[in-house]
Amino acid sequence: MTSPPAPREGGGAGVWRLLRHGPGGRAWNMAVDEALLRSSPRPLLRIYAWAEDAVSIGYFQPWAEVPAGRPFVRRWTGGGLVDHAADLTYTVIVPRSHPVAGLSTLDAYRLFHTAVCRALLSLGFSAELAAASAPGSSAHCFSRPVRFDVMAGGKKIAGGAQRRTREGLLHQGSILWWASDRDRLASALPSALASLLGAELQPDRLAPEEARLAERLERERYATESWNRQR
User: Is the pLDDT confidence value at 72 over 80?
Assistant: First the structure.
């Protein structure tokens, strides 16, 4: 299977940050994403893991849709429930001044999922973008593909959700994949995104001020009942 074509609107040349984080708590993972959106001066790709078999729910989703007994956190982005027990999770953040932040929601979705496709193809797996959205609706993100989701064997294997603020664009993505190949995929994704954008990805870490903001957001928002059970 051939690689999907590069979106014409990419326009992402430049130096991006690459952050790799080991397993983190559910509230911490979401707090870091928001802290980076608020404060990162450069676009970035963050790849991270979960310290527990948690699920995340979309910003507008009722918390009652969480399976009984599962720890959960409410995302800042929309979409449906995502089970993080068996996925590779990544985030793309683009400051408002960057050309990629000027893409439409659909074009940005296509751009980032084309990178996921290329990463999978580089490892010898089949993957393609969904040509259209499936009918109906579902509370679970992976039960119903939408246009430009990543498909393999007729099933959705990667989806994402976005939020745009005055600071920029936040894309939170999840790839359902075998644990034995997750590390390989995590290594292939940065190269695929860099090649697609014509950009350079430089390894980086949280700045002290980013970590402090994440700690505050974890404490005041993502670890609170008022946030997670607000609907």
Answer: yes
CATH number of 15-228: 3.30.930.10
Q: What is the pLDDT of residue 210?
A: 98
CA distances to 73, 92, 182, 210 from 111, in Å: 27, 11, 21, 26
| Residue labelled with tokens 């993505």 | 173
> Which residues are catalytic, by number?
141
Q: Where are the domains of the chain?
A: 15-228
The pTM is what? 0.92
Separation CA 163–CA 151 (nearest Å): 23
Helix orientation angle between 105-122 and 179-197, rounded to the nearest 10 degrees: 120
Beta bridge pairs of residue 163: 170
Q: What whole-number distance in Å separates Cα of residue 177 and Cα of residue 185?
A: 9
Mean pLDDT calculated for residue range 121-149: 85
- Rounded distance between C-alpha atoms, residue 189 and residue 44, angstroms: 13
Q: If 0-12 CB within 10 Å is exposed, 13-18 middle and 19+ buried, where does residue 16 land?
A: buried
